[in-house]
Each structure stands twice: as structure tokens, then as C-alpha cells.
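Lab notebook, bench 4. Still working through the backlog of constructs that have no structural model yet. Next entry is a single chain of 265 residues. Request: give me the C-alpha cells for it.
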Amino acid sequence: MIKFTLSALALLLASASVHAAPPAGQDALAGPQIKVDVGGRKLNLYCTGKGTPTVVFEADLGRAGWDWSAVLPEVGKRTRACVYDRGGMGSSDPIIRASTVANASKDLNFLLKNGHVDGPFVVVGAGYGAMIAQHFALRGRGNNVTGLVLVNAMHEDTLPADRTARLDAALACLNAAEQGKKDPVCAYPATGINGEIGPALAAAQANQVLKPTYWRAHASELDSLETSANQLRTARKPFGDIKVIEVPQTEPAAIVAAVMQVLDK
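Model written out:
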């Protein structure tokens, strides 16, 4: 295992771009792009750039691929970069089973295979998405993961203390959505990864939280956290030759710098 910390990236941050306006290409993430069959349902996939390895982004708990709108175009200047929406998120089909880390990892495997996205892969995961990224790298058959960037990663042994309250809130929002009610408490939360939000993405996020399918998926991820933690705990082993960078913050420039550090090794 090769492990880098944020301090090793300090010199790179000065040259990383910081967006003061919605990033170019952000609107593409606000709606469906390529819908890929992963077994009786389809997940939304969007790729940009050319080159190898392919960088794949995994969003945090209850979040869609558009969260990476400030990071994706920067990485796409260097190599192929792809984001997708897990089941029930963004423009993907609703979930048909529990939203666990193992199920998400399987879906990602089918998505890349059926979407003809070639490896090797560098997987970037934020929060809960970092758990999926690690499970995908550790348990995948022939996934050919060469690097991991773990952003403010959730750990299987230190799950969020407020997860029960968050589940109760998601279920309340599900109830409101099923009744066609707009509750301001149920807004799509902001994230520092996104940078500025343009009108198209703002509208997509506002529409997202009106859908019961979104809140079912969000609640399922929260309700399955203990199961997901056990799945990753079982899969846990040394990463071997996989290069790993941990980024303790969600600032786009730091994430871009970390990805570039992996690509340069």
C-alpha cells in the first residue's frame, strides 16, 4: 500500500483551478446522458476526456454524480473521467434491492462492463462513496483498480453517530414526497465539492427531492449502513500495489491535486 496525505499535495494546490462560476459542462450532469443496463434497470453514466487510466467518481451517501461537477472537467483535461448515479439518484432508475456497499459495488462493475468503460481504473470516493470505492477495489474480479482517492472517507468502524436521526429525517421527507408536499427541510444539501451551482443543476436538484424514489434510495443507504460496514470489514485486506491518497477535505482543488498525484505515479 502506498499512502499519501494532504500535506504531500500542498505544492500542487497553488496551480489547481478554483471556479468562481459554474464549471463548464456542468449542465450535462443535470440530466440523463448514457443509460446503461446493470440487470433489469439502468444507471446514468457520463464520461468526458480521453486517456488511461479511467478515473471513476463515487458520490457520498444520498448524492448524485453531479456533485463532482467542479472536479470532473479538470480531471477530464488529463484523462478519461466518468461519473454516474447510483440507483434512485440523479437520472438513474429506482432501486430494486437494499442500497448496500456490496450491491453498489456490483452495480458499478456491471456499469463499467456494459458501458464499455475500459480500465485500468482510479476510483475517487467521497464519504460513503469511499466505502464503495474500497469495496469495489478489494472484492472486484478483474476490476484492475490501480489507484484510490478517498475524500473525507467514512470508515466501517466509525459510522456517523447521527445516522438514526438522518434516517428518520429521510423517512419524513419520503412521506412528504409521497404526499406531493414541498418541505424546505428536504432540500438537496450543498457540498463543497460542487463549487458554484448553475440554474440547470439547481433545478435538477430541486426536482430530485420531490421524488419518492430518491428518498427511498437515500433512506435505504442510511438504513443499510451497518450491513455495508460489515461488508467492507469482511472485504478489508492490504491494498497491495493500489496507490491510495486520503484527502480529509472536500475542496475541489485538493481533490484534483490528489487525482493528479495518483496519475503521476
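Notes after review: The chain has nine helices and eight strands. The two ends are 13 Å apart (CA to CA). Flag for follow-up if needed.
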